[in-house]
Amino acid sequence: IDIVWSLVRRFDEPQKYKPFISECTLRGDLKVGTLREVNVKTGLPATTSTERLELLDDEQRVLGVKIVGGDHRLRNYSSVITVHPETIDGRPGTLLVETFTVDVPEGNTIEETCYFIQALINCNLKCLADVSEKIAALNSGHSNTAEAKL
C-alpha cells in the first residue's frame, strides 16, 4: 500500500504511472490549490490539461483532482482516488478506488463518456500496478512480491 500511495500522491509526477501523460509542469507548492499543466501524448483527443489539486490526505490516503482547463472536452471533470489495504489470496495487497464526475460533452452520450473515461482509468490502474510491482520487486530482491487489486 505504501508503494502505491507514494506514486498516487505525487501530483507533480503523474507521468510515473499515467502512460498518456508525457510531461507535467507544476505551479504551486504541492498544497491544495496547486495547479499542474500536463502534456498529453499523441493518440488522444487533447494535447494539454490544466488540473488543480483539490485534496491530499496522507493519513487517509485520498487524492482529489479537478480539471480546470485544457484543449479537451472533459468539462467539470473531477476525481477522487482512495487507497486501501487489502488481502489478496492471503497476501497483503492494495485496493484503489477512483470515482469521477464530469459533464457529458455535447454530441456524446453518458455511456460513451463513461466508457472513454473508464478506459483511461483502467489503463492508468494497470500501469500503476505494473510500476508498483516492479518497485516492490526491486525493494525485496524478488519478483512478483506485491500485487495490486485494481
UniProtKB/TrEMBL annotation:
<keyword id="KW-0963">Cytoplasm</keyword>
<dbReference type="InterPro" id="IPR050279">
    <property type="entry name" value="Plant_def-hormone_signal"/>
</dbReference>
<dbReference type="Pfam" id="PF10604">
    <property type="entry name" value="Polyketide_cyc2"/>
</dbReference>
<comment type="similarity">
    <text>Belongs to the PYR/PYL/RCAR abscisic acid intracellular receptor family.</text>
</comment>
<keyword id="KW-0675">Receptor</keyword>
<keyword id="KW-0650">Protein phosphatase inhibitor</keyword>
<dbReference type="GO" id="GO:0005634">
    <property type="term" value="C:nucleus"/>
</dbReference>
<protein>
    <submittedName>
        <fullName>Uncharacterized protein</fullName>
    </submittedName>
</protein>
<dbReference type="GO" id="GO:0009738">
    <property type="term" value="P:abscisic acid-activated signaling pathway"/>
</dbReference>
<dbReference type="GO" id="GO:0004864">
    <property type="term" value="F:protein phosphatase inhibitor activity"/>
</dbReference>
<dbReference type="GO" id="GO:0038023">
    <property type="term" value="F:signaling receptor activity"/>
</dbReference>
<keyword id="KW-0539">Nucleus</keyword>
<keyword id="KW-0938">Abscisic acid signaling pathway</keyword>
<dbReference type="InterPro" id="IPR019587">
    <property type="entry name" value="Polyketide_cyclase/dehydratase"/>
</dbReference>
<dbReference type="GO" id="GO:0010427">
    <property type="term" value="F:abscisic acid binding"/>
</dbReference>
<dbReference type="GO" id="GO:0005737">
    <property type="term" value="C:cytoplasm"/>
</dbReference>
<dbReference type="InterPro" id="IPR023393">
    <property type="entry name" value="START-like_dom_sf"/>
</dbReference>
